Records
---
Amino acid sequence: MTLKKGKLFGIGVGPGDYELLTIKALNVLENVPVICSPRSSPEKESIALSIIRPILKKRENREIKSTSEKINNDFKNEESCNKLIYDEETNIKGNKENLKVLEPVFPMTEDIRMLEKHWDEASELISGHLNKGIDVAFITLGDPSIYSTFSYVQKRLEKNFKIEMIPGINSFTACASSIGKPLVEKDEILMIIPKINENIGNLLKEGNNFVLMKTSRNTEELENIINEQNVEKEITSVQNCTMKNEKIIDGFPKNKPYLTTTILKLKK
Amino acid sequence: MTLKKGKLFGIGVGPGDYELLTIKALNVLENVPVICSPRSSPEKESIALSIIRPILKKRENREIKSTSEKINNDFKNEESCNKLIYDEETNIKGNKENLKVLEPVFPMTEDIRMLEKHWDEASELISGHLNKGIDVAFITLGDPSIYSTFSYVQKRLEKNFKIEMIPGINSFTACASSIGKPLVEKDEILMIIPKINENIGNLLKEGNNFVLMKTSRNTEELENIINEQNVEKEITSVQNCTMKNEKIIDGFPKNKPYLTTTILKLKK
């Protein structure tokens, strides 16, 4: 008899507000035995993990409660009654019986060989669980199909394991909601641009509505190209969208935290 | 003393699967006194309304129960114990005490004067409630900022009323999840195209990843332009995404129901 393999979920947890999780994501995250949330450095918790903090808390309490009940019934030792604990050796945080939180490091680097090494390691860590028949939920900020680190793990594991993606709220639609304006109407084209480059002039010619993701990576020069467009334009930036420190700014902001998105509309 | 005005919510209910509602949308829809869901003809329920059917059922039961309890306690008449009823005159469906469902008609026409007349009427219907201090939730398929009928009502009411938009899952990210592939990675540009026209050639030149919304409106000629692109390409269409009758098709489909989206990737 062969063991049934676990299933990998790629779950979008939305832009920041816990309430922007979908019911589907919630149902999986409340029950899945392993949650994987990559972080950019060993010291920093990922934003995705901080978004689902209420679920972790709830599970922690539920699991402590159920373990306590078991202990009361069985008069067993209290060792398994621990809170979520961090196991340095395995890089695993969790109540040993019910929930494990894997936090592999995906460093912020452009060194592709170093990145591939980390993606390989994370995929191995995940497949170790899947091979034991344990389901794993990989969580990602926003949506798992849009500029997501999930893609790297997905490519490595899709041949051998069943994968289910659960879409999440994108930062750009959340930004439009925060601003309180439509992104696109009628037959308008929407262009999502993660990093503006020398083609920006052509793109500006072809479209009316643009989302510039990760504005923090833009250079002043490219912002100038946009500012110099000889048409009526609306430029609005949103920082830390739907989070407690959300900020909406007219134009391009001077200070640019990591989570800054700019919406650009050209009135041709 | 002036009456406090009601608030208008513009709520994205996602692509079709009830579980793709956000927690935030659920919280509002379970409690708001008036839900507005435009439909394309008087005979047809809107898809958005059919998605939130479980919430309507739950509220119906809850309200019947609470009304029955009241009757049992007070020995009052049973008139208010009705199920959701349809009032032909006011175009209002609802338990009179607790939930009203407004279903104004937004016909599928390109006659802009006729459309404006209907949008005006719907906005008046909604403002009638807001002016009485009653909150209204306008529901829309997908997300309220992306090609949504909500925009038309929003424009008419935003000067006089407080409006909150709640983002929803887009059809295109849901399609990517159903297909099980990323939409965009790294520094790739994503173009969302609602209606392909004579500029399609230029757009194809500038981008790699395209979402063609409402594929049903494409002509064969334009599909040929795409098919003739002399680069490796991946074309996948999704019909009725995340619904029970979801269908994933390689290339452009021959039969095109209203909810058909095509994802196009050019490997340049």
Note: The CA atoms of residues 163 and 221 of chain A lie 42 Å apart.
---
Amino acid sequence: MNPWEPCGQPPGDRTANPPLPCTALLGIGTSTRGVAGVARPGGYPPGLAQEFPMQTTFTIRTRGAGLHEFTDEVIRFVRESGREQGLLTLFVQHTSCSLCIQENADPAVQRDLDEFFRRLVPSSDDPSMRWLTHTTEGPDDMPAHIKAALTSVSLSIPVVSGRPALGTWQGVYLFEHRARPQQRRIVAHLGA
Amino acid sequence: MNPWEPCGQPPGDRTANPPLPCTALLGIGTSTRGVAGVARPGGYPPGLAQEFPMQTTFTIRTRGAGLHEFTDEVIRFVRESGREQGLLTLFVQHTSCSLCIQENADPAVQRDLDEFFRRLVPSSDDPSMRWLTHTTEGPDDMPAHIKAALTSVSLSIPVVSGRPALGTWQGVYLFEHRARPQQRRIVAHLGA
Amino acid sequence: MNPWEPCGQPPGDRTANPPLPCTALLGIGTSTRGVAGVARPGGYPPGLAQEFPMQTTFTIRTRGAGLHEFTDEVIRFVRESGREQGLLTLFVQHTSCSLCIQENADPAVQRDLDEFFRRLVPSSDDPSMRWLTHTTEGPDDMPAHIKAALTSVSLSIPVVSGRPALGTWQGVYLFEHRARPQQRRIVAHLGA
């Protein structure tokens, strides 16, 4: 698997960004957990843990629209870096899914969130969305771009005492907006 | 007061993130200004002003939904750091309030903003929101999570010439989405 | 032209942030491309390419509401910095336009996005928006602030192998929400 290979994205009439070499990234791998497969960074060679910045890619396999949590993987990446302080930035390399930090105590919160966005931006085959013109990639594609614009493509979390400074009930999520399974990449950067 | 203590957040069936020790943070304190109390970082010990990154926590006591400005506290934190250049990141440790940068010239902008979000995401006891399932924490709780997802949990502002590079009329706000008073924490990170 | 001069922003009854000196910024200039003029950073003096952080300002002249791409300018800034790894942050110094990363393959995506936000937040002379109170700056002004709050004021993109780690079809856009031409400034910060 080439982690930089585009997935779920259309051929375009524009020049695409060239894929980045994965050799510049650390700890790419694949595992499966729950509804999503998340790439776990492995241990780092001794010297690297002392260097800034550190980068890795989380690969998440989604099984449909909704929120996919990867908080544990994020915490582990920071812990294995050996760094006590820093800034962790997450960046999703797609335009039909996004990132969010939400309550991870009651799963109903995540279902209600997803349902709100479905009602705010219905599928393009809904009569209320007849005005959409980008429809060739399926009725869920343009609404997915809109939902992504309404949420976040990047998140930055301070690292304090070797952990991302998440609040007590905050979880980190990939918010998938496409209906069919996708493979999603999130670049993580741990800097000064 | 333990600045890391959860407030306004529910007990959950999930394992909570452990509270972070406040000893890793600088300048925690409390003051009161207008409708909100904002923790002001005190002066830093001489050596610290030379080191990256610097972190502090702003604690804001809200008196209800709406925008609470803390631009002055942010500018003071940067000034007291002694740094001419850098990147300031603000991260809110809650999921029912958020951050935004908005015009601070006319207070009507802030009222209209809050009113727009109330109309877009009404209270869960409004007939149009009958489909919400996360309702045990009050009719304003799930709408608050949705409004938080629609705005920002983190903001990054370049520091230029010893000041956050805010535009002429930009102010930094905590956007409270809960109806009752809350104590909110924002972690600030000034990095390279 | 003073790149820090406010444009399209109202005189207020609040103390404005003082303009920042442009001498602290690198590579300010002006060019014109398509519907927008984008300031291109020139080459850097030899020594500078080795130092963190690097900062510049992109100035974009918009010709009306909609998305204005400046991906090429962002990539060039990173390339000319000579840095292989880092974190690029973009920050827009206005409250009636915003930033987003969206698909740059099919221009219909950008038109549909703009149209969605027009329908979600109509002009203040639309009967459904009669409740707005901040109307003195024109019927498109308060809706522009709301659209800005719904999207992003800052974006952070990891730099990998000398390039921003954008996905295959991701483009970087200024999202203009005002109807009339504006001159917009985006501060770019390339840090560790």
Note: Helices of chain C lie at 71-81, 107-120, 141-150.
---
Amino acid sequence: MPIDTADLPEPEELPDDPEDLPPENLNPGWLSQDELAFVRSRLPIVYVEAVPVRVDGLGQVTEVGLLLRGTPEGEMTRALVAGRVRYGESLRDALFRHLETDLGPMAFPQIPASPVPAQVAEYFPMPGMSPYNDERQHAVSLVYVVPVTGSCSPRQDALEVSWMPPADALAPGTLAELAGGRGRLLRQALSTVGC
Amino acid sequence: MPIDTADLPEPEELPDDPEDLPPENLNPGWLSQDELAFVRSRLPIVYVEAVPVRVDGLGQVTEVGLLLRGTPEGEMTRALVAGRVRYGESLRDALFRHLETDLGPMAFPQIPASPVPAQVAEYFPMPGMSPYNDERQHAVSLVYVVPVTGSCSPRQDALEVSWMPPADALAPGTLAELAGGRGRLLRQALSTVGC
Amino acid sequence: MPIDTADLPEPEELPDDPEDLPPENLNPGWLSQDELAFVRSRLPIVYVEAVPVRVDGLGQVTEVGLLLRGTPEGEMTRALVAGRVRYGESLRDALFRHLETDLGPMAFPQIPASPVPAQVAEYFPMPGMSPYNDERQHAVSLVYVVPVTGSCSPRQDALEVSWMPPADALAPGTLAELAGGRGRLLRQALSTVGC
Amino acid sequence: MPIDTADLPEPEELPDDPEDLPPENLNPGWLSQDELAFVRSRLPIVYVEAVPVRVDGLGQVTEVGLLLRGTPEGEMTRALVAGRVRYGESLRDALFRHLETDLGPMAFPQIPASPVPAQVAEYFPMPGMSPYNDERQHAVSLVYVVPVTGSCSPRQDALEVSWMPPADALAPGTLAELAGGRGRLLRQALSTVGC
């Protein structure tokens, strides 16, 4: 199965015209395809992931947002907001950047005041080392539950953000639609907010 | 010293005209003075406490709010938002009620999505059992860091809410102005948000 | 069914010969049946609950312990270690006391260094206020995951401590055997340890 | 001062006879000096840090362990247990490996059951981006409080593990002896265990 990860592709991975790439020499956090392939085979990569939620006036989670997108094979899969942390970028900046990329500029996420994540997920390319799997890399992912207060309009390649009550997000059928073990991760993240 | 607690008096403790008291038979959570004295000598009492903070667009704490009020002796002391949880009242409701009482109705607090507190403080009337002391009672207090987004206008008996950068709130001089060990508690609560 | 709670009865609730009761005047934390009935109708009661686990040398949970006991109706139900915190008793002391009562004196529990619980559960006697229900009282319960290193021999009225892999403890059938919403609570507590 | 970090040098950084190096082709997690220099300039590096503590029978922290070592300049500095997570290595394995390296094989650390760290520290080589600074790299460090139950005998280049009561570890003079902002980090980590 060529698509084993639930997060959206990052710009570095898109088959782009090199002219469209940001000037690499300006930002050491940008990696060429070769460099990315090298580091992915030698080092754990730092990721952030976010479970977008809506809360009521007392902070209680009322809805959970899941990204829905089509794979190149035409399958629909669900995904969390997720992406790499760049060199020189803070976790908060990375979280905000990926939320904006995946939910649009009007989502108005409330990044948690605490840097301690709701859960830590370790993705390995080799099966069996952990409940979480990512063919591309060994990633250490800090997972946050993030209330969003605005309206979400995902960029084109995510077809939809679907909102559902926590009980629906926790239904076995929904959890199974998240790839790479992220159903379990979603369940763990929602547990921290009492769901 | 007759005032050993930093939280503001609750309505039950005020020397009130009984006519002003809410109808007790309507809400079993209201206790008469005698009842309160009895339960305080026999049971740990559930409290919530809140450290109000202001955060920037990335969730980073920029300011910490502390209540400043005069004691009957004319001393100024600093306090956290704090109060008892009533029978039949959820922790979220109690947190919201005490935030509204102490910060006014326009504070717009963002109650955290997680019910797990930043810290748990155990107050004992007997000295030496814990770093936290409350002459009146044995209290188990769940402490939350709560971002507020509106404007704060405390009720009359709290003279002021003063806002200060986290480094000032953590200065030994400030921490020492919180009674009953709450300086230590403030330090612990702010630690959870990276301060 | 008159017994809807999963925790084991506390000594105060047992239909005992009064001579067997501890001398109440020596410990204000002891309550007579009448006093307990009064406070349970007027105040939230502080509880601690524990999920006993076994861990490997790297701290990974390998087994989860659940109490199995018969109700007066002859039904078998599963329960967590649980009980009330007494006046003047620290949370750690209460946790240790209830672990010893339910698992025996040779369980050697490792009480967590952090007083912050894995989860907070609010039990209400009125249905619908929370996922957790306790006919007897409004209880605020601090829930901990506690590794035990010794051997467990529960007191007589708990027929058994059964140990199972985390996946079995999380199976819907097992979770449904915990009363009062504690299946959900067990799932949340195990989520914090990556299960 | 060329050495501004409190963690002990890793084997990769030691000026070694190449013969002494582990066979790099057997473990992709090993990096040559050039490779390490490259990745450190392009990616955040995953670290684990540990605050070793001793606890009493109720889990209360009684002592805090700090590494004491001499710099090449002859200064004494205090340090936490710290080190890089290798490719393909779990956080638990990395934590155990660094604890064993720094505290010896008889320390018998109790790695926490929860993978969620007590705190997350972001080290940047550029000053001002964070309270934590590491000249060598951008590191994202997951910090745990780890009870140890055995006896500690650090390897040669750490002269001593010194144990002290939590109040002494939190004294401003002690915190100031930890480089790169780790005094603040120690304070935050100890806050999570009620100190």
Note: DSSP finds five helices and eight strands in chain A.
